[in-house]
Amino acid sequence: xxIITSTLSYLRTNRALFLSLLIIITIGFYSKFYNxxxxxxxxxxxxxxxxxxxxxxxxxxxxxxxxxxxxxLIVLSLTCxxxxxxxxxxxLLELLRGNFIGVTILGNSFTWSDLPYYFVGSLxxxxxxxxxxxxHDVS
Length: 139
Description:
This protein is mainly alpha-helical.
């Protein structure tokens, strides 16, 4: 009974983050399968913005004491490192990149043009988390 009560309390406290994650996951996957005009740009570049926002929201969910700016900077730093790691092709990374989820998380080719989208996504993630945390502080 205590576990159920604790879980419900956690879900209630974090409902804005869970709802935000549901929204951004839906948009992010949609961007990967989008087939309309400018689909190559949406699939390969714009998706980076949603990727960054997703990771900002995940960190905000699990690391409550981190400030939104710290979260955004951590996410930006790690995803830039991941982008540069795409220049490296050891067997383990190639194995991980061998399926849709692996490629979605790790990527498969380095592109300088992805980096501005990471900055935009981290900035959007910062504002998103900041808005949620301010709204949560008021209530």
